[in-house]
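Journal club prep — side note

Before the paper discussion, L.F. wants everyone to see what a predicted structure for a comparable chain looks like in token form. Sequence:
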Amino acid sequence: MTPISVVPPRVLSIEDDLVLGAYVHEHLGRCGFQVTWCQNGQEGLAIARRQAFDVVLMDILLPGLNGLAVLTQLRQSHSTPVVLMSALGAEADRISGFRLGADDYLPKPFSMAELRVRIEAILRRVALDRRPAPAPIAPAMDNLRFDDERCEVFLGEHAAGLTRSEYRLLDTLNRNGDEVLSKAFLYQQVLQRGYAPHDRSLDMHISQIRRKLKAIGYTEREVRTVWGKGYVLSAADEMV
């Protein structure tokens, strides 16, 4: 019997802190990841454009080209999942990262166990995105088109510019019709991790989805917050 070759997940780590960078490289390597490590934004951007990776880990405060600038340029041509790492704790910094296309945000200091779990969650999401899915439950006359292959939605020829996480979240809401989905369910189903009250990642993704759908002129349905219950994708004139 011919043995099956399993390619280890490829991770690009862009971190200028030599101690943390070496620790991440060593720990993830022991966990079975294939890790490429570089220490500045310009080099990291060049490598990310030149090679294929499953996940990019990136500090925000990088020398030369900072992490947000790298993310902006990378998103012009690549949809590789990006996890931002930073000691910057302000909500504005997290919002900026998600708005520019980050898939997750990990505040420093963090444990290697949490880093690994978040990477594995992203890898599961990507694997789920690649699986064929059943036809969505949506209003017959709805003009929003879901493209599973590109992880994007279109209104006519206008693309919303969703990240993979945003697409999967919107797609999950869409497939469940008028059912209100709890935060706990969405964290587990979409972000592939448990819900914690202090974690604002889901709220950030919802905010970006609303902004992007509005930007392409989509008004037939909207993501509504049902206080104490969760979120639902419902008609814009419908009271929840």
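L.F.'s comment for the group: The longest helix spans residues 112-129. Keep this in mind when we get to the figures.
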